[in-house]
Amino acid sequence: MISLNATGATSAVSYYLGQNNRNLQKSLTRLSSGHRINSAVDDPGGLAVSMKLSASLRRTDAVSANVGNALSFLQSQDGVLEVASSIVLRMSELATLANSESISTSDTALYNTEFVELKADITSLLEEEFNGISLFAVGVQKLSVVTSENGSQTADITQANLNAINTGIAASTLATTASAALETAIQSIANLRASNGAEQSRLTFAQEILAVNRTNLEAANSRIMDVDIAEESANFATRTIIQEAGLAVLAQANTSAASLLRLLD
């Protein structure tokens, strides 16, 4: 009867030691990985939610990258328009200088040489591209940019109609009529740059919203997936103590059982 009780105690200690060891290993895995959920069995529902949040995060990052590319497109376009503005302003200056009665015919010819070269420069700007996409188009062309993670929101960016400005300038000469054409071109470029700035502003705000959404998604996912280090460290310490105590008790139980058996022999 005494031997059976000793054996039962040993079995009970072994059972609880096994349970504690599994919990100890789980705590060790959580502390080493930093995650509360390391396999589906840890929290099936939480894992499913985390997977959906992670997918939303990936899509948010992709949309943010696309918006960033669109902003770069517009910045490149504005840079070219700034150059176009400088060229047209110089052409306007030359037209004014050439129409002065105090300069010679040879001076006018020199001004005209630069004027013609600048017209060619304006034409060459039409070929400018960003990542293989033309910055400018004949007529007003729009490119659609997705600005939300679920694809429900978009914004348009414009391939500006610099060709219309080029066409107006191409027919101009250093004659008095050039001044009016160039003034029109200057105003048109100003309008294009204003539209460009408005589109940049809209995309900048869209990028800020994506950044805020990303922060919130990360926080939500972290609450599900990340382990509470302080709590889990306390659990690990407690289970380590229980493990050590259990091993000592098991050893004592085995010793007691062996002693009883010797007495019965």
Descriptive overview:
- The chain is 76% helix and 6% strand.
- With 265 residues, the chain is mostly helical.
- The protein folds into two domains: 2-34 and 228-264; 44-224, Up-down Bundle (f41 fragment of flagellin, N-terminal domain), CATH 1.20.1330.
- The strands form two sheets. The protein has a two-stranded antiparallel ribbon. The chain has a two-stranded antiparallel sheet with strand order 3-4.
- Strand 3 and strand 4 form a beta hairpin.
- Helix 1 (2-33) runs antiparallel to helix 6, helix 2 (44-98) runs antiparallel to helix 5 (177-225) and helix 4 (162-170) packs antiparallel against helix 5.
- The protein starts with a helix and ends with a helix.
